[in-house]
Write a structure and sequence with these properties.
The structure holds 2 protein chains of 2 kinds. Chain A is α/β, with parallel strands linked by helices. Chain A is 31% helix and 20% strand. In chain A, a hairpin with a 2-residue loop joins strand 9 and strand 10. In chain A, helix 5 packs across helix 6, helix 6 packs parallel to helix 7 and helix 7 runs parallel beside helix 8. In chain B, strand 1 and strand 2 form a beta hairpin. The two termini of chain B are 33 Å apart. Classes of the chains: A alpha/beta, B alpha/beta. Chains A and B meet through helix 7 and helix 10 of A and helix 6, helix 7 and helix 8 of B.
């Protein structure tokens, strides 16, 4: 929330235009996992992509990293500098993207780290692979420096992943993600299952890496609204594969509040707010309605919602909440 | 009354996870147990739900100490508990459809005949559609699977519910929905609840009283 305001003349680190992902399923079924997603992430900025599980957030991350399975079809563009990630081949991803242009902070560090090798050996391998450092002593020093950057205690480097607490394993994974000095950090549910103190600590560290130098951008995919509120500059809300709202984080979590009824519902479900669930379930991505996918669960739905609302301005809804209604009501 | 009296438990007798913990839950009461990860609160929840034999101390249920655990516990006692775990994926047999998953406790206790009705009733309660009931765990989201796991915990109408980080993997809306299902069930049946977690805001909102892990463990002898 304290990040520098993006300057319009500087191109964003990541620019996603009309990104769609379809999965071809047996029997000719098609699953629309992501549809027409568009957003930018600027240098020094943290964009939180939030939404319920199964809304397509992680598929979007996989698309950016070239990790989609073989039955996926993509459309649109995702520009990282001059490179269109959706048109890149596996060789490009392996040699220039993963670790070098995009550092991935994984969902489950315990599953991301190799269980049979020490953290030191994994950091050294990553350093050797991604940087020009050569020679045993130099590698050892570089690995220790990398661990320190992620606040991983150097005296724990000789441990195996199972000997680390959840927080330290998360830092080890973050250390690996930072080694390549990638302009884009992609954190996919970095706080799932961690307790609140660790969540705060983990996201604060991610924020710190973005603030340091100001040239790095962070795309954090999460369903943890408290974590998003803590560090995000902007918020993109995803529902049923579409970005339905793009908002400034302060306005989104603060008095004006979100404009899309779905985003409001998500915030109202928080235990420190109304603690009221959104009725119903998200629709199946293989059988989306023609109109607004949220209409069936929405108390503002009308006949107009049978047609798909485009993302106008910052919100894709026929009946959005006014930008300042609540603030005016309270005044 | 569900009482844990100076319970010591763990996975190695020489190094128990915790010593001399005492905690009680009255009928109809909702108690939240709050602690950081790794403190032993899940092990305590397992003891309270008859799933783990403590090394010392007693679990006293309505005045009677529990003597047998896990499969050895008498059926009437075992079925008095409904348990929901943190990781729905790990607590659901991947070969069963969600309908079979919810009906499993009925089958295991010879009440197969009730299965169809009870499953339909509970599916509506937890918000699962008919279409989802015919799927297997890998075909549904974490939130949908946890809804089925909660239905399974309620299917035998337990007097006690033990929820171990039931919502830690879930989004805000699913969390609020599942807590509401638990509270509606408790309001209808007077069941007691032990909810274990690390989210103070959630437990304070959900439970009648929230107990800190540090307050149930006697100060360490050094």
């Amino acid at each position: 929330m304290t990040g520098p305001t993006p300057v319009p003349s500087v191109p964003p680190v990541l620019s996603v235009h009309g990104l769609s992902v379809r999965f071809r399923m047996p029997g000719g079924r098609r699953v629309a996992a992501v549809t027409d997603a568009r957003f930018d992430v600027a240098a020094g900025e943290c964009l939180a992509l939030i939404g319920e599980s199964g809304c397509g957030k992680s598929v979007l991350a996989s698309a950016l990293l070239g990790l989609l399975p073989g039955n996926a079809q993509t459309a649109g563009r995702a520009l990282l500098g001059d490179l269109d990630l959706l048109a890149a081949d596996e060789r490009t991803f392996a040699r220039t993207v993963r670790g070098r242009l995009i550092g991935l902070v994984p969902q489950s560090p315990a599953a991301h780290l190799t269980p049979v090798r020490t953290i030191r050996s994994q950091v050294e391998e990553t350093v050797a692979e991604l940087t020009g450092v050569r020679g045993r002593t130099a590698l050892r020093e570089a690995a220790e420096a990398a661990a320190e950057r992620a606040a991983f205690p150097v005296d724990h480097l000789d441990r195996h992943p199972h000997e680390l607490s959840g927080g330290l394993a998360q830092r080890a994974a973050t250390a690996l993600a930072l080694v390549g000095d990638a302009p884009l950090l992609l954190a996919d549910e970095p706080t799932t299952g961690l307790d609140r103190d660790l969540v705060d600590h983990t996201v604060d560290e991610l924020r710190r890496h973005v603030d340091k130098g100001g040239s790095r951008a962070l795309l954090m995919i999460t369903h943890d609204l408290a974590a998003a509120e803590r560090i995000a500059d902007r918020v993109a809300v995803m529902y049923a594969g579409r970005v339905v709202e793009l908002a400034d984080a302060t306005a989104f979590f603060g008095p004006p509040g979100p404009r899309h009824p779905y985003s409001r519902g998500l915030l109202d479900a928080l235990p420190d707010r109304a603690f009221v669930p959104i009725p119903g379930l998200p629709p199946e991505l293989g059988a989306l309605p023609d109109g607004c996918a949220f209409a069936a669960r929405c108390d503002r739905a009308s006949d107009a919602c049978a047609t798909l609302p485009p993302l106008r301005g910052e919100v894709a809804c026929h009946h959005p909440h006014a930008a300042l209604t609540e603030a005016v009501d309270r005044a | 009354m569900l009482e844990l009296r100076t319970v010591t438990a763990g996975y190695d007798r020489r190094a128990p996870v915790f010593r001399d913990v005492s905690l009680s839950v009255a009928p109809g009461e909702a108690v939240g147990l709050l602690g950081p990860s790794g403190c032993g609160k899940s092990t305590l929840a397992r003891v309270a739900a008859l799933l783990h034999r403590p090394d010392a101390g007693a679990l006293v249920l309505d005045g009677t100490p529990v003597r047998r655990w896990r499969h050895g516990a008498p059926r009437a006692l075992r079925t008095a508990f409904g348990v929901v775990f943190q990781q729905a994926r790990l607590s659901a047999d991947p070969r069963l459809t969600l309908a079979d998953l919810v009906a499993e406790p009925l089958r295991a206790t010879g009440r197969r005949a009730q299965a169809a009705d009870r499953v339909a009733e509970l599916a509506a309660t937890v918000g699962l559609t008919t279409d989802l009931l015919s799927r297997r765990p890998h075909e549904v989201s974490d939130g949908q699977l946890q809804r089925a796991c909660l239905a399974r915990a309620l299917v035998l109408r337990p007097r006690w519910l033990v929820c171990d980080e039931m919502t830690a993997m879930l989004d805000a809306s699913t969390t609020a929905a599942l807590v509401r299902v638990v509270e509606d069930y408790r309001a209808g049946t007077g069941a007691g609840l032990l909810a274990v977690g690390h989210d103070r805001v959630l437990l304070d909102r959900w439970c009648d009283r929230t107990v800190e892990w540090a307050s149930v463990v006697p100060t360490t002898r050094n």
